[in-house]
Amino acid sequence: MFIAKVVGNLWATRKHKSLDGAKLLLVAPADPMTGELLGEPVLAVEKNLSAGIGDMVLVIDEGNSARGILADKKAPVRTIVCGVVDSATVGGKTCKWH
Questions:
Q1: Cα 78 to Cα 35: distance, rounded to the nearest angstrom
Q2: Domain segments of the chain: what residues?
Q3: 3-state SS class at 66
Q4: How high is the mean pLDDT of the chain?
Q5: SS3 assignment, position 65
Q6: Could you say which DSSP state residue 70 is in?
Q7: SS3 of residue 73 by DSSP
Q8: Topology given in CATH for the domain delimited by 2-90
Q9: CA distance 49 to 52
């Protein structure tokens, strides 16, 4: 699990049926206090959270957990956005993102 910043959208004219209604987002690991990108973007599925470009999100990068969130044991998914970060506190300092 890691905190990431949404840096882009991906569109597909055809998707696996388990991804109906889901968005495909590009997310990059990021520092939760500064928003500084810490790694390369990866593709993540997002469903029902309304995350978009610029949002800080919580990402799970493990297939069984991702499929559990989608409630589909056969979904071809490894990485999924499971939350939108409102704020982060590190060392007594708080950064609000929403």
A1: 24
A2: 2-90
A3: helix
A4: 95
A5: helix
A6: H
A7: coil
A8: OB fold (Dihydrolipoamide Acetyltransferase, E2P) (2.40.50)
A9: 9
Structure tokens at 19: 């991804």
The CA distance from 86 to 24, in Å, is 21
pLDDT of 98 = 77
Residue 37 exposed, middle or buried by CB count within 10 Å (0-12, 13-18, 19+): middle
Residue pointed to by tokens 């599925």:
45
- Burial class, 84, CB count within 10 angstroms (exposed 0-12 / middle 13-18 / buried 19+): middle
* Pairing assessment for the beta strands 56-61 and 42-46 based on DSSP bridges: unpaired
pTM of the shown model? 0.93
User: Band of the pLDDT at 77, cuts 50, 70, 90?
Assistant: very high
What's the whole-number mean pLDDT along residues 17-45?
A: 95
